[in-house]
Every structure is written in C-alpha cells, then in structure tokens.
C-alpha cells in the first residue's frame, strides 16, 4: 500500500489541474468588434469608433433592427479611447474578430506610428486585418454608411477588395513588414465615400492606395489603376484590365491580363541608378469596338503591340508620379538593388529617397494575347 501512495498522490495532483477554465468569459458577456476607426479631432485628441455585432434577440414591438451598433470613445491615446467606449457598453469588448481598421484622412496626415503601436501591443488584434485610409473623409462618416448587400458593412468592403484581385486581410502585415525594409515606403488601401447624383444616395468605393513616407505620414494617393500597376511590379495582384486606343481614331479595345509576372534589373552608372522593369502576362480580349477579325495574325500582332505600348506608357507615368510627388520607393526597387548589387546598395541606402527619385526607370512589356473570345468573325462587323 505504501508503495502505491506516491502514485496516488501524483494522480490526485494531476486531476486537480483538470478543473476547467477558471477565468472564462461567457459569450453572453462579450461584444464582438468587427471594425474600428480612428479620427483626429481639432483639439488633438483621438476619436475611436467601434462597429459591433449585435447578438440576435427576439424583436419586440416589430420593425427591423440593425445587426450592428456603433459606439465611440475619446482620449489622448487609443487605450484611453477604448476605456471611454467600454464605459458605455454593458458587455466586454472583444477585438479578436476585427476585420477592418479605418483611419480618417486628417489622422493619416498627422501620422499613424503611434496608432500602429497600440494595434501591435493589443493581444486581441488580428494580424490578418485590413487597414484603410478614408480619402477626403473621416472614419466616423464612413463607418456610419450603410451597405445594403451585406448585413455588416465591414464585410462588404473586404469582399470588394477580394473581387478586384487583391488579397484581403494582409495590409496590417504589409505595413509591419515595410517598416523593417530599408528604403521602402508603406502603403495602405484607400476607400472613399461617393454621392450618386442619379440615385441620390451615398455609397462606398475602393479608390486605390494611400502612400506614406518613412515617418508614416500620408503623402498622397494612387488611384485604382495606378495601384494595380504598382501591384503588378510587386507581385501582389493576379489580373489587370487594360483599355487601349487604336491609332487614327479607329476605336478602342479592352483586355484582361492575367498570369502577371514582373522582373526588375538594376545597375549603377556614374552614381546614378538605372532600373529596367520587365512585365509579362496573358491577355484575353473582352471587348473590341472596331470590327477587326483577330483570327488574322497581322491584326492580332497589331493589338498586342498597341496594348504593350499602352502598358509601358501607363506604368512609366505611375513610377514617375511616385518619384516626383512622393519620393517613396513603393515598388521595392531598393530591395532589388540590394539583392543584385549589395556594395552599391550599402553606399546608396542612406540617401535612397533621393537616389530613387533621380533613378532612370525603363519599362518593357511583353504581354501576349492568348484568347480573342470568339469562334467566328466579329458580330459587329458590317
């Protein structure tokens, strides 16, 4: 019996550890936050906005009830705002399901470094959250905007971003990575509020990308097409629509380019950086206004040449805009230079913003049209 006593005591000790969760929080005591926003007030304080899922309850008195509610908190720091907000809510705020974070434009211009500190320190923050800048507006105004296609407005914006060819749930990771990449500048997706004069209603629309400087202050925007061209270079999108005009006013055609790929080659000549960008992809003709039979090789080659010249022109304009207006390397050219010419990069990285702005960039497009979308002559042929 004595020989079994130590085993019995060990078993009792182990069983005592299986008593369950001693600090559990019941679901009925939690309030799940699906989206949050931050605005900068005139007095310098922060306005924190939360969009919460309302638990399903039996409706009393009839009438439709919104499946979400919005609450705010004010303070000098995000933690103070969160406490001020919590004092208005009967359930504990839980942020583990938050999909989107919105920054008003004034907040983004003032700088988001301190806000990112609060996000990364919060154990409930999801790394797979999208952070948006509300172009020309406030986070509060945007989060109060209803969206009829989804019960929760925050879900609608995530779905739109996925449809247009960008991976969702990664902009928080993007900005954390860019902070530690020498010479690179962070970007965030931008959204705007539009007023449809014909339908007489407000709606939301993905605008493009917000460009930040190395101090994480808003420097400007790229529109949707400019943003997609940038994502082509960085390898973060899988398709792009291209509309090109035929010479002599003969009409236009539209192509969707998929299987996108980009290569960057760098060189340093007499202290000046030279960058060559090579773009490839597979095109599908979606629409052609001129009645041209693309089954003929000569006509198809003409369309390919016009499309590639358009891609080179538009991509070059996007790169020059970033070089001249923002002076922030959002194309990862510095990473390519570091990889291909580490000795030159060691000398240039201290003043890369200026070197990037002065760099000579040449774009080479080699997209092939693989499908023309018809089996016979064009139906609009007279």
From TrEMBL:
Membrane topology annotation: Lipid-anchor
Task: Tell me the GO BP annotations in alphabetical order.
Answer: spore germination
Q: Which InterPro entries match?
A: GerAC_N, Spore_GerAC-like, Spore_GerAC-like_C, Spore_GerAC_C_sf
Q: Where is the Spore germination protein N-terminal domain?
A: 23-193
PANTHER family from the UniProt entry: SPORE GERMINATION PROTEIN B3
Where the record annotates domain Spore germination GerAC-like C-terminal, the positions are 208-373
Q: Which GO terms describe its cellular component?
A: membrane
Q: Where in the cell is it found?
A: Membrane
> What keywords are annotated for this sequence in UniProt?
Germination, Lipoprotein, Membrane, Palmitate, Signal
Q: What is this protein called?
A: Ger(X)C family spore germination protein
User: To which protein family does this belong?
Assistant: Belongs to the GerABKC lipoprotein family.
Phylogenetic placement of the source organism: Bacteria, Bacillati, Bacillota, Bacilli, Bacillales
């Amino acid at each position: 019996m004595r020989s079994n006593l130590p085993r019995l005591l060990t078993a009792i000790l182990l069983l005592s550890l299986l008593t369950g969760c001693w600090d559990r929080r019941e679901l009925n005591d939690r309030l799940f936050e699906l989206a949050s926003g931050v605005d900068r007030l005139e007095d310098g304080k922060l306005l924190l906005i939360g969009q919460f899922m309302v638990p399903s309850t039996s409706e009393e008195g009839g009438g439709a009830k919104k499946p979400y509610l919005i609450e705010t908190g004010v303070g000098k720091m995000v933690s103070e705002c969160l406490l001020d907000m919590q004092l208005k809510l009967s359930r504990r705020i839980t942020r583990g399901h938050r999909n989107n974070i919105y920054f008003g434009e004034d907040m983004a211009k003032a700088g988001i470094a301190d806000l990112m500190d609060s996000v990364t320190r919060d154990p409930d923050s999801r790394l797979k959250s999208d952070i948006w800048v509300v172009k020309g507006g406030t986070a509060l105004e945007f989060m109060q905007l209803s969206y009829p296609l989804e019960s929760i407005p925050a879900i609608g914006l995530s779905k739109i971003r996925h449809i247009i060819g960008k991976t969702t749930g990664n902009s928080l990771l993007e900005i954390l990575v860019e902070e530690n990449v020498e010479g690179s500048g962070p970007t965030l997706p931008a959204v705007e509020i539009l007023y449809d004069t014909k339908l007489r209603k407000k709606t939301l629309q993905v605008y493009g990308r917000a460009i930040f400087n190395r101090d994480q202050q808003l420097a400007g925007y790229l529109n949707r097409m400019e943003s997609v061209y940038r994502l082509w270079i960085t390898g973060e999108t899988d398709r792009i629509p291209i509309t090109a005009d035929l010479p002599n006013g003969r009409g236009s055609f539209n192509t969707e380019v998929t299987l996108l790929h980009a290569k960057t080659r760098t060189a340093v000549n007499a202290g000046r950086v030279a960058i060559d960008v090579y773009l490839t992809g597979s095109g599908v003709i979606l629409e052609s206004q001129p009645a041209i039979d693309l089954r003929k090789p000569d006509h198809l080659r003409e369309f390919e040449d016009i499309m590639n010249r358009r891609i080179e022109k538009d991509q070059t304009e996007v790169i020059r805009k970033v070089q001249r207006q923002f002076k922030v390397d959002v194309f990862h050219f510095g990473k390519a230079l570091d990889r291909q010419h580490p000795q030159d990069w060691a000398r240039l990285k201290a003043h890369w913003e200026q070197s990037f702005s002065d760099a000579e960039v040449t774009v080479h497009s080699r997209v092939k049209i693989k499908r023309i979308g018809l089996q016979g002559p064009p139906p609009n042929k007279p």
